[in-house]
Automatic annotation (TrEMBL):
This is COMM domain-containing protein 3. The lineage of its organism: Eukaryota, Metazoa, Chordata, Craniata, Vertebrata. It holds the Pfam family COMM_HN. PROSITE patterns: COMM. Belongs to the COMM domain-containing protein 3 family. CDD domains: Commd3. One of its GO terms (biological process) is sodium ion transport. InterPro entries: COMM, COMMD3. Residues 80-149 form the COMM domain.
Length: 151
């Protein structure tokens, strides 16, 4: 979107906010299974002109089925971590063949969703500092949960 020549004169921050607002509107309409009249009313309340409302509703109607399928595939409950594995990776050179000698950790979270069973594992790479930060935040979360259950 930011590379579109028609939008080059618009502030990128405003453009990102508009994109987020439009995406939120589309997702909420899909979640609520809103009909065109409800969407039109909502957009009229937001002071959009009639031509843009009609264009939005036409595009929404064309993609409504695909949106509902996509939203249905997401599921309703968050993923549950069942196991974690990690390994140390040591990068010796970068793409430009400069020596780097940077250690990092490859972490894999085995997850499952109660709605549909297992999911692909979640993998990420992090430095020792990032891993220590993650562990610290997890310990803080565990302490908070422990305090909340003792009340």
């Amino acid at each position: 979107i930011l590379d579109d020549p028609d939008l080059k004169d618009i502030d990128p921050t405003v453009l990102k906010h508009c994109h987020a607002a439009a995406a939120t509107c589309i997702l909420e309409a899909g979640k609520q299974r809103a009909d065109i009249s409800a969407i039109s009313t909502c957009l009229e309340d937001c002071k959009l002109d009639k031509e843009r409302i009609e264009q939005f509703c036409t595009e929404y109607q064309k993609n409504k089925d695909a949106l509902e399928i996509l939203l249905g595939s997401i599921g309703r409950s968050p993923l549950h971590i069942t196991d974690v594995s990690w390994r140390l990776e040591y990068q010796i050179k970068n793409n430009q063949l400069h020596k780097t000698y940077q250690p990092s950790y490859l972490v894999t979270l085995n997850v499952e969703n109660s709605d549909s069973g297992s999911h692909p594992d979640v993998s990420f790479s992090c430095t020792m500092e990032q891993l220590q930060d993650l562990v610290g935040k997890l310990k803080d979360a565990a302490k908070s949960l422990e305090r909340a259950t003792q009340m």
